[in-house]
Amino acid sequence: MFTTKGRYALRVMVDVATHDGWVPLGDISERQGISRKYLEQVVSLLVKAGYLRSQRGKGGGYQLSRKPEEYSVGEILRAAEGPLAPVACLDCSNGEICSRAETCPTLPFWLDLGRATSSYLDSKTLADVLAGAPATGLGNAAATAANAAAGASADDGAQAAGKAEARPLEEA
Q1: Predicted TM-score of the model (pTM)
Q2: 82-87 long-range Cβ contacts below 8 angstroms, 24+ apart
Q3: Which residue of 34, 43, 99, 137 lies most exposed, with the fewest beta carbons within 10 A?
Q4: Sequence ranges of the domains in the chain
Q5: Which of 12, 7, 8, 46 is nearest to 27 (CA)?
């Protein structure tokens, strides 16, 4: 599970990528519905990682430091979240190894999940996210994801997405 910091980091990167020139933090905050104060924390992580450039003053804001296809979703999330280990005992960032590692029967499962998650996130680029982002309303991807989270099948998601797109935004 990802925190709001990781989700917002990805949204900031998408927002900046879809606007030309220097993008002011206030504009991002307004479009994304995220408090400016919290966005400052998220953006500082992205600047520190070298993913965004910043310029102060009038006409300033943020720009991507590379092309969207040169960022993996995994690296963006790691910049905001830190290690993406599915369980704390696999997070070796503090220099400690779990004392139960040699006898833990669930360790192989968690290792496989961590590898699969990292592989997937590293295989997707910011450009991929931009290509799948709905312009308005609840698009197919959002409806499918919502149904998947609720345990519905992919076919149910496609049907729900069609219904969601047919309704006005206020009803969605």
Answers
A1: 0.73
A2: 84/114, 84/117, 84/118, 84/121, 85/110, 85/114, 86/110, 86/113, 86/114, 86/117
A3: 99
A4: 4-131, 135-171
A5: 12
% of the chain surpassing 90 pLDDT: 53
Distance (Å, whole) CA 5 – CA 25: 16
pLDDT at 138: 37
Residue where the block lists tokens 């006005």: 168
Residue position matching structure tokens 């992919």 = 154
Task: Round the average pLDDT of the chain to a whole number and report it.
Answer: 80
B/e letters for 96-115, b = 16+ CB within 10 Å, e = fewer, are eeeeeeeeeeebeebeeebe
CA nearest neighbour of 63 among 14, 9, 23, 15: 23
Helix residue ranges per DSSP H, the chain: 4-17, 25-32, 36-48, 73-81, 107-123, 126-132, 140-149, 154-166
Contact 80, 9 (CB under 8 A): yes
HSE-CB at 118 with a 13 A cutoff on CA atoms is: 12
31 CB contacts (<8 Å, ≥6 apart)?
15
- Write the CATH number of the domain with boundaries 4-131: 1.10.10.10
